[in-house]
Amino acid sequence: MTMTTSKTSPRRLVRGGRRAALVAASAVVLAACGTTDGGSPFEPTGPTGRVRFVNVITDTTRGRVNAILESVPFGVNLTYTQTTPFSLPAPNNANYSPIYVGNRTLVLKRTADTNTVVATIPFTVAASQDQTIYATGGTAASAVTSFLTTDDNTLSATQARVRVVHLSPTAGAVDIFVTTPGADLAAATPTLANVAVRTASSYLAVNAGTYQVRVVPAGTAPASRAGAVAINVASLALAANTVRTIVAADNNVGGAPLRAFVLTDR
Questions:
Q1: Whole-angstrom Cα distance, residue 198 to residue 133?
Q2: Which range of residues forms the domain containing residue 208?
Q3: Which of 75, 117, 239, 255 is the 20 to 30 Å CA partner of 11?
Q4: CATH number of the domain that 222 lies in?
Q5: Alpha helices in the chain (DSSP H)
Q6: Domain count across the chain
Q7: Residue 132 domain-assigned?
Q8: In the predicted model, what is the mean pLDDT of residues 84-99?
């Protein structure tokens, strides 16, 4: 693979502190595979939005990736459930990166062979808007696709805000219960009912405290819920003035056992 260069500086893609992060990421890629990607071919101006990438690729061969944003390294050697920029070295490991507004392209390449493109994901950055790009699929050599969410990271001084992004095709439509730990599911009402795959729920405002999050197939009879739990987050501590996203997913090669992981949004 041949190193390419461009007169346009990669730092123009992002603002302020992200410059050093992208330079550092370039050095890591260079050391890891003997090459890097060229600089950005454009010189954007104007306001920014904020972007985060999450790896939910269910294929161990293609699931370890480098994320390249407009030819600029954005994340290196990202494994299942890892996110960028959070995975970057401190002090650049923020939850999101500020990116100039406009139409953008994220390219995922195999870390072990950066000649192999795993997925190309076009997206649009809107001013003052947060968004998350999830890479999904890959089981049994299926296509790696994307799912994008617009994230509302408005804070509440007295409560926590939490939502669920459902990315488990094995689970199908589900009912989701957010309860005190150990609450009887037979007597509970679904907090979120009949949530389809590839859906982001609305945000829930909850009092600060510790919760249990359980997922069962949609429409499961009350008496059968306890035995039908497909995903169980046994203890989720939520503080006031925070925002969290719970991602429901298959395991790293697809299928059961299903799992959930929690993203810190703010």
A1: 12
A2: 159-264
A3: 117
A4: 2.60.40
A5: 18-33
A6: 2
A7: yes
A8: 91
